[in-house]
Every structure is written in C-alpha cells, then in structure tokens.
Amino acid sequence: MQTIGYAAQGPDSALAPHVFERRELRAHDVALEVQYCGVCHSDLHTARNDWGWTLYPVVPGHEIVGRVTAVGSAVKRYKVGDKVAVGCMVDSCRECDQCEHGEEQYCREGMTGTYSSPDRVTGEATQGGYSKHLVVREEFVLSVPDGLDLSRVAPLLCAGITTYSPLRTWNVGPGSRVAVVGLGGLGHMAVKLAVGMGAQVTVLGRTDAKAADAKALGAHAFLVSSDEKAMAAAQSSFDLIIDTVPVKHDLNPYLPLLDIDGTLTLVGQIGPLDEPSTVPLVLGRRRVAGSLIGGIRETQEMLDFCAEKNILPECEMIRMDEINEAFERMERSDVRYRFVIDMASLQA
What we know:
By secondary structure, the chain is an alpha/beta fold. The chain has helices at about 40-45, 95-100, 150-155, 160-170, 185-195, 210-215, 230-235, 280-285, 295-310, 325-330, and strands at about 1-5, 15-20, 30-40, 65-70, 85, 90, 110-115, 135, 140-145, 175-180, 200-205, 220-225, 240-245, 260-265, 285-290, 315-320, 340. The protein is built from 10 helices and 17 strands. The strands form 4 sheets. Strands 3, 4, 5, 8, 9, 16 and 17 form a 7-stranded mixed beta sheet that branches. A 6-stranded parallel beta sheet has the order 12-11-10-13-14-15. A two-stranded antiparallel sheet has the order 1-2. α4 (about 160-170) crosses α5. It is globular, with a radius of gyration of 20 Å. The two termini are about 15 Å apart.
C-alpha cells in the first residue's frame, strides 16, 4: 500500500511530505486510515535523534485514531469501519513473562515501537501516524469507546496512558494525596485522571502562572516550588508525586514532600538528572521510580475509564503542514495542552 506522511530525513531537517510503502496485510494485521494524530514530545526527540536511536527517514506519531479499512484473514477482533486507536507500540514477542502479564511495554526482547523501530518480521523501520494509513498487528489495536470525541482521543494513547499507569500501579483512589510536577501535555492528563480516581491533587510549578489553569482542570491546590516556606510546610504531604518534566532537573526539592513510603515516579525525562540526595529517601523510606506507558490491556482500561468519566485532553487542532511550527511552539511550552493533527489536511 503506497501512502504519504510527513518525515524527517535527518536530525537537522524539517518534517516534509514523504511517500512510502506500508506492508501488505499479514494474517493478523489491521489496516486503518488515520483520522487524528497527537503530537508528543517524543516525536520531537526522535525526529532530532536526541536519544541516539532514530532510524531515518522517520515518520513520527504514536497517538493515533482512525477507522479500519481492511483486516487480515485471521483477524477476529475488528472489522471494516470500526473506530480504533494505536499507541506507542505495534508489536512485541508476545511470549515472555511480561507480555503474558499484559505488560508488553516491558517485553524481554524489547517492544516494537510505532515508529523508528525494526519490524519483527522484515527488520524494516516502522513508521508512525503522521501519515494517511497504518498497518498494525491486531493485538496492538485498541477500541475507541462510544461517546468519546474522536478529535480529542489521540493524546490519551501516550499522555493518557503514561500518567494513568503509575496512578494504577501505586493504587491511587479516594483519599490518595497526589502531586503533579509540571502542567503540560502529560501533567494536565495526570491531574484529570487522578481527580477522576478520587484523589486530592496538588500541582507544583516554579511560579503561580498556571495556578488558575490547574484549578480549572480540577486540581485542589497549587504549590509554588520556589516558595521555601510553602515547600517546608508541605513536607510529608503526598503519597505519590508524578514528575512530568521532560528535561534534566533537580529532584531534591520534591523528595521531602513525600510521606513515609511515598513514591516519586518519573514519566517525562529520559536521560540524566541532577544529583539527588539520599537523605530524604533513607530517612523516610521514600523511593524514586520510573514508569513507561502501559500494556495493551491497561491502555484499553484507560480508554474505557475516560469514557466513563468523560475525561479528555485539552487540544489545539492543527493541519499537517503546521507540524514544524508546532514542534517549535512545543519547545517553548506554547501549547495548552496537546497538539492534535487533523489528518484530513494531509493531501495525497
């Protein structure tokens, strides 16, 4: 299947139209026409090879919503016309202990990413959702529940599950005290989801510039991290801190905010951090952890939860040819809170 997308040809190139071939359907494959695709910070990092593993040319995009156009001969879960979604992975070994437990993101052989990842059969680089069409193994396709606005679902496939998974892992529910560091694409979803689970939610920011936004999103409080008195008064106040900051930063101001046995989980930065002090960790049996998206079963659970609670991201719709400007604005944090590409704007 010939299709068109927007690709980076190298780390210094802008994204531009790119014609390429999607594979023919295998027995367990689902083909879909992409209707909406979210824009994630990971797309920007990958396009610029910030992590050192990009395979060029690369078509980014792993927050994908569309409709099924064809299915392979052995597909049982989907039919032509179904509303479906695809997130950050399109395959795994499907046989290891992690895959069997529904944690395909931690596949012992490594998950197959939606883009810039070797296909498990051909070895060719996968290409993502900044394109007209997608072909995915059926086990990695998700159903979009009725009632959700399709134009706003896409960011749930990364920003949503990235924050939902640690909330579930650390058993957040009514009475839980959750803090969210950073109110961007990930942070605003963490707030909405934690509130939906019944938690008391506080947003942390360097200034009070986003205090009103935090309250509008449902947060119960806003804590200015540069206010030493307020930070001192908030010590031992939280069971879970979700840190969404996507760059190198200092964890030391946040660790004393955890209660005994509390956890700070990193979901934004992939790479180095400033040197942390072990004092609050040892004295309070506190811990620092990381979390990577979620498995397929948990991602479907998240979509169903969002449909039940009517939780959707705040989105700004853009055309495909505005993607390079969107990348620049994302670097400046000039988006509230997630870009979504209307893929109808991508013309053949």
